[in-house]
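Next comes this protein:
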Amino acid sequence: MLVLVYWDRLVGDPWAHLAQLATDRLVLLVLPPQVTVDPLALLMAGVRAVVHDGDGSNELALARAAVLSGGSYLSPSVSALVGTGAPGVSRRASAALGPREVETLRCIAQGLTHRQAAHRLGVTEQTVNTYAKRLRRKLGATNKAELTQRAVELGYFPA
C-alpha cells in the first residue's frame, strides 16, 4: 500500500514514525521546503520517494509512478540536497568509473528505475543492468541505497 506522508505531520520522533510506517507500506514523503533532511538517510530508513512541498503535482505523479513500479524517487529539489556536506559523509578519491558509469550512477542515485535510466541515457535496460552490476562491484555496494551513498561519498554530486 502506498502512503503519502508529510514530514511536519509525523508524530513524536519522525525517524521512528517513518521506520514504523515503512515496515508494511510504500512511503512517499513530502518535506517542507525549509527542511534539509539527508535524503540518503530517508532512503535507508525505508522511504521510497521524497519530494518537497511545492515541487508540483508533476513531481508527485513521477514519484508515485516510480514507487508503484518498484523504484524509488528523489525530486530534483531533494536530489540537490545530496552531497551538500551532511554530517558523517566523508569524501574520498573518486573510483575509476567511466563516463557512462557515472551517468548511470547519477540516474540510480536520483531514484530512477533501470527502465527510466535506460530511456534517459538512450540505451537498453540490459545495458543499465550491466552498468549497475559493475558499479555495485566497483563501489562495494549491495543495493541502490548503498550505491547512492557511495556516489555522494565519492563526490559524484556537487557539494
